[in-house]
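Predict fold of SH2 domain-containing protein; 98 aa.
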Amino acid sequence: WYFGKMGRKDAERLLLNPGNQRGIFLVRESETTKAYFFHFPEHADGLCHKLTTVCPTVKPQTQGLAKDAWEIPRESLRLEVKLGQGCFGEVWMGKSLM
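Predicted 3D structure, encoded as tokens:
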């Protein structure tokens, strides 16, 4: 239910998702007001609906993203010499087995 550092627009987009029912809510860190929280235990204080359901997390679709048209099977490569590495991975010299 805690969504951390999420912008207001992203939170609104999640909450207004067509599949969501009225009363859905989430908790996020405010972009402008720090060290405060708002809680409505008894009086709605302007809320139109009772907060009843935690907003579901949306998992990104990953099926079909594993390979692109230009990629070749990893089994068709033989890594021989590691040339270096950086923040995003390693660089190897290798040969194609195809």
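The mean pLDDT is 81.
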